[in-house]
Amino acid sequence: MILILLVNWNGHEDTLACLRSLDAVQRPAFDVLVVDNASSDDSVARIREAFPAVEVLESGENLGFTGGNNLGLEYARQHGYEYVLLLNNDTEVAPDFLSPLVEALEADPQAAAAGPLIYYHALPQVVWSAGGAIDWKRGETRMIGLGEGDEGQFDGPPRPVDFVTGCALLARTRILEEVGGLDERFFTYYEEVEWCLRMQRAGYRILFV
Fold it and tell me: Which CATH class is domain 2-208?
């Protein structure tokens, strides 16, 4: 069972576009949860009207990216989902994006999380992320492939990376029992980097697919 998790805050137009792209994903089967961070617009009503099968969980306050996702991660754990995908609400996915991520984790028991190749929305053949790397000497992170044209250089089998972006991150739900969820001290930005590091310290790999 797979849960796809979106966090929305006053962004129903982006969220609806994302949900429409998910509608084109044929397999594997999945459920969708939208955590609404106390939007002051009519996001909740619009999402429920357009996608009545999508579960909308209202947080009651703006918990940020981190807190909103943690609410969804706990929902996934309590409802017995095997995998949970963090997906930014301002993304649009390819119809075949999900299967390779699931297959990569199923093929590698020591992999805790996986992320796909991500492009700029306005420049669909220009890479935004092919996984992430950490420069420990400088204390910096970078997106692998940032700004490169896609000429097939990132094709091939899944490969280990330091982290994958929370923009699109598939994780085993059971990892929550071992390392916990996202660290809410970050609120937004770098929380997925630290989460991936915790997974690696627990002996797991992070894969770019």
Answer: alpha beta
Distances (CA, A) of 55 to 7, 37, 154, 182: 12, 14, 35, 21
pTM: 0.95
Contact by Cβ (8 Å): 173, 81: yes
Looking at residue 189, its amino acid is Y
C-alpha to C-alpha distance for 43 and 34, rounded to whole angstroms: 11
Q: Are 86 and 192 in contact (CB under 8 A)?
A: yes
For the purposes of burial, counting CB atoms within 10 Å of the CB of 205, is it exposed (0-12), middle (13-18) or buried (19 or more)?
buried
Write down the domain spans for the chain: 2-208
* CB 90, CB 168: distance < 8 Å: no
Tell me how far CA of residue 76 lies from CA of 118, 152, 174, in angstroms: 24, 34, 10
Looking at residue 87, what DSSP letter applies?
A: E
The distance of Cα 160 from the centroid of its chain, to the nearest Å, equals 17
Task: Report whether the peptide linkage leading into residue 116 is cis, meaning its omega lies within 30 degrees of zero.
Answer: no
Average pLDDT over residues 36-42: 95
User: Which of 42, 74, 89, 103 is closest to 182 using CA atoms?
Assistant: 74
Confidence class for position 111, pLDDT limits 50, 70, 90: very high
d(CA 170, CA 86): 6
